[in-house]
## 1
Amino acid sequence: MFKLWSTILKDMRILTRDRLGLVFMFVMPIVLALVITAVQNSTFEMLNTNTVPMLICNRDTGDAGKQMQTAVEKVGMFSLKQVMPNVSDKEISDRMHAKDAVIAIIIPADFTQKLKIKADATAKKALKNFGMQAGDSLVADTGNVQPITLLYHPVLQESFRHSINGALRSALQVVQNKEVLKSLYFALNETALPDSLEKDLINNQVGIVEIPVSRDGSRNIPNASQHNVPAWTVFAMFFIVISLGGSVVREKLNGSFVRLKTLPTNYLVAIISKQLSYLFITFIQATVVFSMGIWLFPFMGLPKLNLPADITGVIVVTLICGWCAVSYAIMIGVFAKTQEQANGIGAVSIVLMAAVGGLLVPSFAMPESFQFVMKLSPLHWCLEAYYGLFLEGGKLKDVILNIIPLLGITFAIQLITLFGLKRKNLI
Amino acid sequence: MSNAAVRINNLGFTYPRQSVPCFNNLNLEVQEGERFGLFGPNGAGKTTLMNCMTGLLQFSEGSIQLLGHEIAHHKKSVNKLFGFVPQDFSFYQELSPVENLAFFGAWSGLQKAEIRNKTAELLEVLGLTEVRNKKVEQFSGGMKRRVNLAIGVIHNPRILFLDEPTVGVDVHTRHAIISYLKKLNEDGTTLIYTSHQLSEAEDLCNKVALIDDGKIIAHDTLNQLMIDHKEDGLEGLFLNLTGKSYKNS
């Protein structure tokens, strides 16, 4: 026990004297969590609270064009910038290239007229289906309504473009429905649709209640901090490979290792000491990053990290994730022949495991062919366990199915390490 | 009961992926209390032989006994019997001499109080007391050599292997190290030593072996070898037995 304690003391002394290494271990995860949360938070805010600048060119002189414009305004997602009807399509494109707006819609000149024809045709068809005769006031369908043109800047991501498209379709649907309703009412009553009835019929939409699924019944809406802080904490824990893997290689390459091999103590003591010392470091890393999420983020205008109710669960998951990260780093250190090898292989493998593990792309969006590979990544199980606690409000027993594979991977890594040490005649 | 500190019988060793053996049927005996020098040209096999004796290399044939214990069978327990001072600085440069001695003392099987006492003694004898809490990376080459030596002897080994312990140091440090080694020997520690400093070896060693191409070509007291080969110094003896041409192996 005295040997182990002396070794831990030695490791901690060396660790705390490596200031650059400490900065890398503690500042890097904080910066990562901070920057990614800030970026993602601003994206969320742009989508949810801020508005997207949009150029609108209404070349229609009738009511439908104005109604379309009002409906787009009511979507609440866009800040409209009016463009005169005589401005050409090219000039609108030029303004977009100048980043005046990232999207533009052009309402064609005969939009009202064509929409009325379309609405009359729909009403006529409906009346016929009801077994009623349409009046002469309804005009026959003479063709398609010229589509509204949507111009978008290529920097817009596809998913965002789809949500804009959906919002515009919904606005267009409101205008179309209103026209069909008016045509039907006129055909039946030979008078215009009263304003009050029009408002009742159009605005009487069924609402949608959004409820995040949680295990503890809470309805806290997950924010960017809840998503990013645990994810980048896991990443930082595994990135300890740079420091720990390098430390194992350095010890192997420098003279001290030769002397250690001639002393009456098994090298396993050194490996156990490194595991305990660096496990402590990963735990401190997680504590620091979580504390930043709780106390620093709100000061910086970022959403506060809400700790799960099951703190014991968070501690157990953190320790198991840390142990897996430390085991992985030692394995890299045992097999690498130079520090460059340990750093290169360590860093690239962690980024790859993060990518396939769902840290960079959500796991549900992972292609079918990657689902198996994803399950081999320890970072995936760490992330799932943390998400079970932080996002789903679960307890330790709820994430046990994520912990078991993580422990399995850790034991496999330990066995490979022991095999490597034995093969190199180190134990 | 044998009084041999080291007994090597029919040692055979070949480096992995090499067809030519480094040693073949090598035999050597070093008696307890000797100051034994192992000399030879570059690539003769001195360091390899020392690494086999300290268990750093696993040999395929023959046996090596340290104080009657077969090292292949009791490697870790046999390790308590000897100390090793490698040619490279074998400690943690980020730590102070006290911290290095505390760690290596524990790994050598000493308890806290023993480490404390022995550390104070060694730092005093080797002139490191004033810098005991400074990081070793700030030390001169000579001071680092003394730290290297202190770590090798902290557990009072009965045999001390020294691989070029004075390389790159000034006259004062060399003198201090050699004096300390002689004192250790007077206290009962067997010294097994390699160096290219032949004048220093003449001063320190009372028995020598010359090794060339993996074979022991001479083994006796220094005086007897001088008489046998009609030489008046170790350098002349060395050139006489190993030849004057370059050794590139």
## 2
Amino acid sequence: MNKGEILIIDDEAQIRKLLEINLESNDYKVVHAENGKQGILLAANHAPDLILLDLGLPDQSGHEVLKNLRTWFNKAIIILSIQNSEEDIVKALDNGATDYLVKPFRTAELLARIRSAMSKNQVQNDDAKLQFGAIDIDFIARTVKKSGTLLKLTITEYNLLSLFAKHHGSVLTHKYILKEIWGVGHQTDTQYLRVFVGTLRKKIEIDPNHPEHIITESGVGYRFQ
Amino acid sequence: MKLIEFRRASTGKQIAISSTSILVVSAACFLVRDWLGDYHISAFILLLNVSILAVLLEIIPVLIAALLSALIWNFLFIPPLFTFHIDNAHDVLLFFMYFFVAFVSAVLTTKIRSTEKQLLEREREENSIQLYNTLFNSLSHELKTPISTIIGATDTLKEAGNKLSEENKEALIHEIEKAGTRLHQQLENLLNMSRVESGNLRPKMDWIDLPDLIHQIIRKMPVDYKQQIEIEVQKDLPIFKVDALFIEQIVANLISNAIHYTPDHSAIKLKINHQNEVLKMEIEDNGTGFSEETLPKVFDKFYRVPNSRTGGTGLGLSIVKGFTEALNGSVSLHNNSIGGATFVVEIPCESSYINNLKNE
């Protein structure tokens, strides 16, 4: 069974080979490119379901490739990046990347991210109801239930939760969340975000110290699952 | 320190210092010349002045002071006064002897100083060679062990794959995985160390929920451990404005250090407190503690406690120190009275309370 086509854009032959073996053995069809130019060309010709894009390419910056792709390619793009490059990651996410993985990454992690990103290719995020574990969100009634019990959320907490839920599986950067919830001009007020994520976790998580839904991505943002 | 500062001043400034000093001392001697009696005494005082200057200043300002003081002595003290003329041969000889002694004293002091400097430089060079050797030894060991494991295990899998039991195959693959993680960790440490060394650590301050970050760090610990990690957070801990990634480096290295050097199944306690805008993190273990001699050295680069378990480059704690200091904080270490040791990290940082926003 073919689960979809993935384009790998990475200049390291070893990484391409490894990814190819991994993905093909998990029933994905794989094409690969070793530089940005070739990558964009293949993306146009093959119309893949997902692109794995390395930020460090020989001919042009991965950010340029991402911007170019995002002018016409609206399916998932997962960034592959190296350690200690949070600024790069944030920039890529703000430029429309769906998710990111830091090298070296675990295969299980890669496959989970690919599944999550691809599932969003199909789903239109205008569902009236969403469910995450014990949490039920009803966007029409504007209610949230945890194991069937109605939760008392403030307006800000509800807005934050619905933003997370509508982008479940993706990493949202601090800047993006602040802009969406508190508006332009509040993009640097991360203390609001810390506080509200804290109170929201207390209400929706079973153990707020080991959150299952709102996951912190250090120096980058949050992921909801 | 002050002596070196004098020498760091520009030559012009040094000349001004030396000349002023000679002028002031000569004027003082001239004023009390009756009390001094013999005019030879003032020569000794001026000579003393030149010698002191020789210790403090570079050679040119000192030579100028020697020349100036000789001329002043001649002008103000050798009869006939207020002329450069000297009457008797005895005083001519004294005048030249004065100049000669002052000159030799200046030159000799400079020579002694330059020899001292050379010795110091050689010592520093030897120290850095030793450091380099330590680095090389520990690095080659730390990198070669996992590399040998990877090559050895893959060879075995390739050559003898058919004869191996499933269990052994699995064990070999697990070893490769562990070696890879170890290599990755060592490389991370080296990169962080070079960031500390370059003095280029610029923190990016942003608000963090510290317990959230700490739990995340512990979840991500790359090593298998059998100790119990307990977290004790002060009630009503505020959020802090600090660099999350720096804190991650500090905490992860301290925990990894505790994991490495304390017995399995023992407890590692992490306490988080806050007082007067200072964030305090204590990492307490019940390992063997540190001897008096090793205590002051543990934060030194590449330092390893003698006879300690293998599997570290001696970089972790110096990384902790580097990142803590980059946040204007301090890290210290003491043995616990009941055994084990406690690392204490204190970082001054802005804090904010949830209460301020509750009504929004």
## 3
Amino acid sequence: MNNSLQQKPFDIKPAKPGVIPPCPVAPDALIGIPRRQTNPSCWEGDGWQGFTADLAARGIVIDELKSARTLYVTDAGGMAYGLPRGVLIARTTGMVAEVMGAAQKHRVPVTVRGGGLTTEGETVSFGGLQLDMCGMSRVLDINADTLTVRCEAGIYWHSLAESLRRHKLDYLSAPLNMTASVGGTLGVGGIDINSPRFGCSADQALAIKIVTPTGEILECSGSENTWWFNRVLLGYGQFGIITEATLRIRPFTPLTMHYFYYGDLRTAMEDLVMLCDEDAADYTGILTMLDRAVNLLVAFDSDEREQAFFKKWHSRLRGFGELGFALRTGMHYALRPWKLREALYLLDRKRALLPELQPAHHMSNGKIVDRTVVFSQAVWKFWGGRQMVIPDLATSREKFFEAILRGNEVCKKYFPHYTLYCVGIKLIGPRERYELSCIPPDAEGIAYGCEFEPMLEGHTYSRDHLQSFKNEIYDIGVDLGTSYYRFGGMMKGYIRRVFGDELVDKHLAMKQNVDPAMVLNRDVIF
Amino acid sequence: MKKNIPYYQSQPGATDPSQCNGCGVCMLSCPVWQQHHTKALTYCGRNRASIGGARDEDLVASARACILCGSCEPLCPMGIRTQQATISLRRNLSVRGLLLKPAIQPDTQISDMADYSRLVIPGRILRANTSLASSILTLLGQRSGLYSDDGYDILLALESGQEMNDERIENFMAPLMKTTELIVADGLLFNVLRSLLPKSIAVRPLGQSLLTNPKVRAGLKPTDFYMIETRAYNANRREFVALYDALRQETGCFMNLDLQRAATPTGASSYQRHRGLESIVSVEAQVKWLLEGRAAKRIVVEHPDDYEAFATYTKLPIVHLAEVAKI
């Protein structure tokens, strides 16, 4: 062998038995991180026959056809690929309980999936059973008096909204993506542009029915099985499978949306924080196009709130309306003709994106009737693709500016165009619920989050490029001690770095206690 | 006319189905999804399985499940022509004998069409209802005539993915080339004819053509449930949505439009009335869902298949759109 090749840093040397060497592909990726194998063994198909036979005896047939399994080969991120050994579409809580009982007995891994909108491979099976919860999508009860809905957890927010709208009701808070499932969202948090008022989508859950990793069925709420309630909500699927949920809802109202434009990200962030702190709007968030074009949106459910905003807060915002911003931006680029390309990009975005955010058929008397439909369509049309890379940071108010400004610089390094999506997240539930979640431990009152969303624009980037980008964003979190919206799958190496061994070991011990064979969503977090 | 109906072929500008990103948005309005919640039976499922390595023969059940309502098509952020893609898959399966084929003979009544500048292809049911057909022609105005060929066999061939005899297609199309305006009751046939005929011939869906008559619009009430023909609407939503949105605001009636403004079907179609071709979509469940939470007192339909669906599963009065002007 050529000597020069032998001395390359990526030269892969044989490992000594029992020793995990530094990663030969990205040797700087996990420096100083003690790696540990927390699962009992790498699943190699052991127990599968017994598992499927046990279930078949109970009338539960696992689909092992290739055409069924290949549907689940990746998630929305399109970065992690794996195939389940078999697929089961859950239809009842009892069926899920049977599955978990058999999985525990035969030590077969079960990966649960709703909308499959994870981006780090958290819902991708690497062997084992893929449990598709979408078969449990019924709306069980809508109570207009108590403003609550009981539904099965596999239901997509879109389908729930369809049912609620027939009764002139609406959900309270849900992700801006209608193919997210209720159960999946409750398991990870769920952020909306009204999160500064209502917290995570998970905080809208009043009660949940779960199947524990050993197959026990439990009703959980703030007053019943409370430990389970606070572990399963925002628990990343580690402590149980949500099969039903009772959620807070509200009367349906179309909303009025206003956009304010900024030529500076920090100023927009300061105004966002001010609006969140003072509860000035029903919905608010930041969407950027370029550093010179930052959009702060505010929206209202009622005319009264809108009027109050214009009376008290509007004059304090430092952003401009569309016309004012266009004039200033036009002047800026007129004096900088060498930035023509940037100006053209902005014009193109304005032409393409803005009409999509207010299509006539989703508007009524100047108000947006179906905000999530509008945003969901826009998200997939402009940011979607066969790969979706959306690293994020969740911070306290004090760290918000530094974290996001640093993340913004990272985005510039990797992509010509990207969007930052920033929102506030109110703390609603007990602290223990958020221990490993998007609410960082040092956040008081309202946490702030930001998704860093590159516009891939049809380009093909290598996985290394995309992963390096994500790592740099996540490294900011490690450096500043923030938290993240996303935890599992390919980024689980960051969990101990962010939260420390003590907290992670505490959660690992809880996991091992309730899931002795470590079969439920294994390898996602621990 | 080629033996392979060009509609099957990839249209210029259409997005290659392999570009599907698996977002699942197309499932949101799918009646198969809504009733069964089995991804494998939806367009998204078929396409993802195919991209993942499944063969066409693995997708027979899924291809059969689709009712070609087209509600997935306007939702696809990538712009994939899902209805065409499913027809194309059915064709591949049909050629290999993996799909049942309805055997239907053409039903043509030879007559001189030369006097009419506006031809109506009413479909088999409307043509048999001479009173209603007469009302339609009256509302559409002078020089309107019923086309003597109902094209039913062609429609069934399209739905089942069968190839058509060249001579049959030529006989069907030749008189149409002499007209200036063509009004088509069935949405799938509308989609095909619109893609095949020269731009000089205006091809319109029957419902929209009737709605241009003020007497028809005036006959709609706020308590009506207006059932849009789904196949033409969904394949052309960007073009048609404004018209129906304006109609909804003007009349206050309920419509079979979901949150995405895709048209929800009843699940009834002529094709599925043939033995062995029945869909897994329950028409009863669809009708129940369409009317849930909607205090409708009358059903107004554009397509006769929907008339039968509502007549079977509701006690509400049902009228065809052409009949509202008289009531």
## 4
Amino acid sequence: MKNIGSVLLLWVFAPVAVLAQPGPQCTACHGDQGQGSAQAPRIAGQPQAYLERQLAAYAEGARQHAVMSPIAKNLAPEARASAASHFAQIFPNAPSDSASGATANRKPPALVTRGDERKQVQACQNCHGPLGTGQADNPYLAGLSAQYFQSSLAEFKDGSRKTDASAQMPRIAAALSEADIKALAAYFASQPPPTRTRSPELQEAGREQRETAPGTATKERQGGDVTGTEPSGSQGPGGAGTK
Amino acid sequence: MATRLKETDVVVLGVGLVGAILARELTKAGLEVVGLERGEPRYTVPDFQGPAMHDELRYSIRKSLMMDTAKETYTFRNSADQTALPIRRLQSFLPGTGLGGSAVHWNGQTWRFHEADFRMRSLAAERYGKDFLGPDYTFQDWGVGYADLEPYYDRFEYLMGICGKAGNLQGKKVPGGNVLEEPRAREYPNPAQKEPFGSAMFRKAAEGLGYHPFPGPSANMSRPYTNPEGVSLGTCMFCGYCERYGCEHYAKSSPQTTVLPVLLKEARFKLRTHCQVQRINLDRSRRVATGVTYVDGKGAEYEQPAKLVIVGLFALNNVRMLLLSKLGEPYDPRSGKGVVGRNYTYQTTSGVNVFFDEKTNINPFMRSGSCGTTIADFVSDNFDHAKLGFLGGAYIGEVMSHGRPIEFHPTPPGTPAWGSQWKKAVIRHYNHTSVVNVHGSSIATRFNYLDLDPTYKDAWGQPLMRMTFDFPENDLKMSAFCTERATEIAKAMGAKQVAGGPRTRPYTVTQYQSTHNTGGTVMGADRSTSVVNRYCQSWDAPNVFVIGASNFPQNASYNPTDTVGALAYWAADAIVNKYLKSPGPLVT
Amino acid sequence: MSSQRPSSPQAPGPVNPARRLLFKAAGAASAAAALPLAADAQPRAPQQAYVFFNPAEAAFIEAAVARLIPKDEAGAGALEAGVANYIDKQLAGAWGAGERLYRSGPWREGSASQGYQLPFTPAELFRNAIRAINQKNANFPKLGAEEQDAFLDSLQKGKDDLGGVPASQFFESLLAVTIEGFFSDPAYGGNRDMVAWKMIGFPGAYSDFYDWVDRHGVAYNAPPASLAQDARGTIHVHVVQKGK
């Protein structure tokens, strides 16, 4: 635990509207690179939007935690955004409680890659990325501590965590047994966390408005059949299904 | 020599939407039911899971969930003076195969038809005069009306968990819903899905022109839902791999996600997959079915005796099954006699591409199968046709369901089909183009019909079915009119350019349009112009029920699935509460 | 294709000077964590072995796809994206052999609306047509770009019989598989490194846009994902190495 005295002083003297120094109040529990500790989960490299949403949830009560709730309530939205952005861009090598390389090649439980028909649960990796390494702004699961993973699913299950607007996670958590959750937790804890971001906000390469040629074609070469004139052309009604 | 099996109470042909519903209802009534499905068993887990399911090449282009045209297909010609040739690769329509049928890979659009559709002949005569269209048009009344089917629409929609906003609750119009729809007893089971960007622009444009836009009713769940069978679905995540794909999220209504989990636990139901039914067998009087003959996956032939036969195949295959079984008189367009294969209809589709500036990101890949915004102002008889010279109409809507690039890479007119200019145009327009769809009705004529092909056969040695079809003049006029209306709305969406055109002749099987093949086993009150009575019971053999879009006397503006589901429950009700109590013709 | 690697980690949106100060004060963490994005370098024509095409056929196909979707200032073309490899593997596989093709005769020439009526599987169609082309115009691969384009134009409009395949029909098939190879998942050997998807902004094999669909008009910048990529982002494609 870092110098909590100075942290508290900053809380007291920094107006809420001004960006408070997120460093010590985050790193004290989450580690200096957000790699996690016994007190708090790994947040390094999680999507910015996801981290921001969790902080908002703690501030507004959609998620509750004795330590996180007051911290989040005292952070202005700009400060939450900057803290989220900060940790979203860090990829330290290994989480503090990750397992050794020997277990990194462990076979994933079927729920990760296939789902469970009897329980009507889809594969985790559909939304959480290959073997739970993240997809866009859905959080990665690989490398999270077993204890944190289990408590997250428990909170979805009992309804105290309301951070999923699609309501997928409560339904999935409710369908999983305690044994399922334990097996998943153990598996993900044994896996190395991702080393790169897939977060939409942080992709700039190749995506700025392209300086391509203007849309209308020249008369340079009229190659017979023209695609796109007939929306119900060979591609079907251009992107729209009619079934 | 076929092996004769033990008799069952019911044999259901096809375990898709109709087969699954009928099997469920009849096993609940205490009957032993055998379900015969030509394709393979498949389930959300493991068969529809990602990321493998998100494979445009495999599922959209190579059509892996569709019927195997190496083994069976249809032959096609535009008119009877041509020689029909095999549809060697599916393009225009894509019948499914496998457990769950086409309701696995559909988009999920779920619409109720209008009274003006069910009583098209009588109501058009009342409103426009009985000779409004010439004698070549054979559209007719269904023998059932909207009020008959309303409770069954309701039942089906609650089974599926349809997401929408009612526009007419027991006669009271509700703004924001489809205020032009027929009255419904209660609200949809789930609220409408989120509205995507392109659809929002369409809505504003349509409102500005005085129309009544509303969210399209969708079988992709807007929230988790548990249906009356106790089966639960998850929320649709807008992954953009809906039609032609199975849903990995348990979010698309299909037999797998609504009824099979319960049906397959039912001891009285026996599912047999990889079984190709060859014919319905009739006794010597040819007025009673004795069961069916089928060939299983190993090539062995079986006779399955049954007291009751439910024909619940894909619409075209319902017709073919009756023709192969010689059940009912085949239609002959020259004499006008016969009924099986008569009144084959389709769907008259067109669209308008809407090209926006580079800063407008449409993001078409963030879509579901049937989210979107539509107007019904030009559907069916919702508008006055007196001066227009045609009957029928179309829904117009921005209902884009995907942005998969092999299928969708729109470019404006004048763009070359390949080369650097093409490539630049694709990059420029891919994420900045919306599409306004026109989904129009299909009227019956005496020229468009189905029969058995004289030349080509399937892998089992049986004749293929021959489709003779072209768009009638009425529908071309309808398409021209509705596409003009769509273009006006498209122009009001704030785009830089719009480009589209109406449906034209000839109908070609080389281009996807719709899998709404309808008619051929028409239902009606008059046995000289129908194959089944109002309860979907064969006029010829009372222990055979034929249920599906093949029963439609003509096709309406909307997609068929809601009506197919309603007919399934309607027929099941008639079987359980009338037929089983007193087997025999339900209509004399 | 523009491929600017960011020079330092940047949060999206206008940069708040106080926040920049914050990062500096927070210490080394931010400077050290350069975004570890894969370099979006221009792909070369990939190393590959052909299992269907003989060298003369391969030369024709490579030259043809390079003109159908050329490399230009917008980015890589079909050749660099591995489309020749894609076509090779497709023709060598089930589709090439006639999967889902109704192959019974009699074969008659039909109307345009009756669709494909030739007796050839895709593999046969390509083989026959390319053989005929190479007999008449064996130096196509060595021609200049304009002459190659003119030849492709003549195929597109042409009525010539190429080993039983009408020229325009061959062209249509060739263009179709080229577009497929450009835009399909890299698992199939084309669209190498998802270059075509990056060019147009298609995310590939994602399965969840629930939180995004009502953020109307948002610029969605996530890197695309292939169905064949593993947990470390490596795309596994079946590529046959020469000499192995």
